[in-house]
Amino acid sequence: MRRAKRALPPVVVVLVLALGVPLAGCGSESGSRGDGVSAGKEKGVDMQEAAEQSDAMLDAVLAGIDPDVQWAHGPTTTRACGVTRRRTVMTIVSPERRQTFLDRAENFWRKNDYRIKAVNKDEKFPAVYAVTRSGFGVSVSFRGKGQAFLEADSPCVKESKVAAPTTEPNGPAYEDVYPLPRPNVRSDFWSGDQG
What we know:
Distance between the termini: 77 Å
Radius of gyration: 20 Å
Helix content: 25-40%
Strand content: 15-25%
Region (Disordered): 27-50, 161-195
Structural class: alpha+beta
Shape: globular
Number of helices: 3
Number of strands: 7
Protein name: Lipoprotein
Organism: Streptomyces rubiginosohelvolus
């Protein structure tokens, strides 16, 4: 004789979906994501420290892109258990040079032991996404008007206040300006015939 399986009451299903799914992205209480990659919490890292690490990663990849491009800080955002730092490239990067730009970022990350998660070869909006051993997600993407954006997302960390970045941009700061202007700096190498 077969036993009939009992279905979970609808309220239990709703609670699991409402509470479990949004928390799944933050990892366990210890900060481990279950894949051997640290997500920050067990090391006692807070949002400010994660923001500083993100800044260092973004500064390093920008330093690895040659010739230099002019950039400004994008907005910093916080979420339930993490922080995102951004850099906005103000140098005009022609469509013919965008893949070169992405390749230089990707090569820098590979040389520094980042794992490449995805590469978007879209002709208009190409991007490359990577992750560090400590769980930080980093990306370079081209968006509207061919503007390049760099982002670093922290893993789940302890909540804290987050100060503005201390690294000075290598061009105008655009403080309290949002959205930032479109790319407006010409480069003999990066801009080609654009702009």
